[in-house]
Amino acid sequence: MNIGFITLGCDKNTVDSERYLAQLADHGARHTTELERADVIVINTCGFIDAAKQESIDAIVEAGRLKRLGNCRTLVAVGCMVERHKAELAAELPEVDLFLGASEMDRLVPALRERGVLQDPVWREADHPGVRLYTGDVPHVRYLKISEGCDHGCAFCAIPLMRGTHRSFALDDVVREAQVLELQGAREINLVAQDLAHFGRDRRDGTGLPELLEALVDATSIPWIRMLYVYSAGITTRLLDLMARERRIVPYLDIPIQHGSDAVLARMRRPERADTIRACVARLRDAVPDVAVRTTCIVGFPGETDDDFQQLCDLLEEVRFDRVGAFTYSAQEGTRAAALADDVPASLKLERLDRLTDIQRAVGAERAERYVGRTVPAIVDRAAAPGERAEGRLWWQADDIDGVTYLEGDATPGSIIECVVESVETDDDFTARVARVTVPAGSASAARPRALPVLSGIAQGSYGR
């Protein structure tokens, strides 16, 4: 049985899809990227903002067309948007055979077996190398979800309604999954959660994000460990000391601030204020030289005045984040903000978004220039095709969101190299010349004894600190 998967939304959805596929492979399913050949098509939906919902609906409609015209016998929609809008979707999209929300992940295999789609469990070594079945084209870059759900009460966000309250996974389970990912070829793992800093709080066993990072460094040989999505309140002295000391932890953080006006932050029910944001970033940069700091912002939140927006722009120009992801506000059913009058016209939201983007483009270009001429580490993602250059990423370039670096010289995918930055091609992309390989692709030495099955250390990269 061939199964096609369409994954929309965040990296956490990517992890969920890989787990779905691993479970399905145990029952004889074979993943295909050619949806017209698929017997079953699964859409893993996103419901974060209106644009994401529309993208999910469009994908379902297109899959329904393939069901009418092709081999597909069963169409399934899963994930966050389904969690919130199952009844409405079922009424409007009769071509979908099965709807499962984000909280019903364990029901996919039983439901397909009940429909006679899946075989009895089998072990297919070639198709199912571990707990997750990778389907991308850069197998050495993987995502590791360390918790589920969220306890933050942000007024604009529906994630707690879709994913539930925060639940940390057991530290040993996370480490074991990282070890499996390394056996599958991972050279960079990206830790993801709604807020990484909340890891361990609910388990009350004395473990937190620093303890998890130390365990991952000790129990794996993965040369790059990157953190995404850490709220400013969770950036503790211990975490900063660990980032400064351990070179395998990439000096990169995504700290979502959402706004720069205290009045808007209060209406958003955000814990930060402009002064605490300034202080947090300053402390981070003081403790971890050359750290790359990314953030996200919302423009056009209810009640946002011209002065509020100017305060956001002023903060961005002052703090000078390396990257900023920005989007316009859209009310989400069931959130506190949905009860507020959406009083910023759509045209003004777009105008403000354009202005913010221009400001950050200038800031980002200036910050990028400081790297030209420096020798810095990079991970190689793609070999050079005929007539093209190899591609990699420098430490301030997270996978898929922060641009790429075009490499001149021999570069093997999965290797860690040192390269000389030669120019800035765009705000996000660079060109660099390979200087030397510091960690060859696929290198690892014999295992060290521990309670968990582990791999031993390899040469560590340097971030020029």
Descriptors:
globular; Rossmann fold; five-stranded mixed β-barrel; alpha/beta; 3 domains; five-stranded parallel β-sheet; pyruvate-formate lyase- activating enzyme; 18 strands; 465 residues; single chain; OB fold (Dihydrolipoamide Acetyltransferase, E2P)
Summarize the structure.
By secondary structure, the chain is an alpha/beta fold.
Architecture overview:
- The protein has 465 residues and is of the alpha/beta class.
- The protein has three domains: 2-114, Methylthiotransferase, N-terminal domain (Rossmann fold, 3-Layer(aba) Sandwich); 141-369, tm_1862 like domain (pyruvate-formate lyase- activating enzyme), CATH 3.80.30.20; 375-439, Nucleic acid-binding proteins (OB fold (Dihydrolipoamide Acetyltransferase, E2P)), CATH 2.40.50.140.
- It contains twelve helices and 18 strands.
- It has helices at residues 11-25, 50-69, 80-92, 108-114, 159-163, 171-183, 209-219, 237-245, 262-267, 274-287, 306-319, 346-369; strands at residues 2-7, 30-31, 40-45, 74-79, 98-101, 141-145, 147-148, 167-168, 188-192, 224-227, 252-254, 292-299, 323-328, 375-382, 390-394, 405-408, 416-424, 430-439.
- Helix 6 (171-183) runs parallel beside helix 7 and helix 11 runs parallel beside helix 12 (346-369).
- It is globular and about 60 Å long.
- The termini are far apart.
